[in-house]
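Human:
Class, as today's exercise, you are to examine the entry below, and be ready to discuss the fold:
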Amino acid sequence: MRHSTTPFIGRLGREVRRRRLAADLTVQALADRAGLSRRLLTQIEQGTANPSLVTVDKIARALGVDFAALTVPPGTEPLHVSEPVVIWRGPAGGRALLHVASARRGGPELWEWTLRSGDRYEAQPDPRGSEELLLVTAGTLLLDVEGRPTRLPAGTSARLTSDRPYAYAAADDDPVSFVRVVELGGHQA
C-alpha cells in the first residue's frame, strides 16, 4: 500500500502545509479546526502518515476547500489531462482511484473503485446536498445506506444522496468495479 500511495502522501502533505501557511494558521490551530491531533497533522505535512479519506476530508473542510483541492495536482485551463491517483487501498487489495476533479470548488470528481471480497469502505456523511452517481461495471456492489443494504449488479446505475452514513463492499466473493462521480453540496458555484 505504501509504495502506490507514496507520491499521493507527499503531495498531500505539501499542499496541506502550503494552504495552512497561506491561511496563517499554526499546526495546532489547523489540528483543532479539523479535530485531529497536532502530531497526526505534523506527520501528514511531513508525508510520514497515511491518513484515511475521512481525515483528509476533515483537513480540507478546516481549510475551507474540498477533498480534491488537497489531492489532485493543479491543472491548466482550458484542458487538464490528469493521471489517476490511488487514494485508498482496502485490506483485501481493493482500491479507489481519483481520476480527475473539477477546478470549481465542490465540483464533480471522477472515481474508479475496485473492491475485493473482504474490502469495505465506510464513508462519513458528506455536506448537505451532496450526491454520487454510480455505475457498476463488473460484479455486484453492496451499497449500505444508513444500515439498509442494496445489491447493485453490473450494469446498474444509481444516484446516492451522500449526506448520510454509507458503505461500499463487494457483495460476493468476486471483485466489484464501479465508477463514481461525486458532487459535494454546500458550496457556491
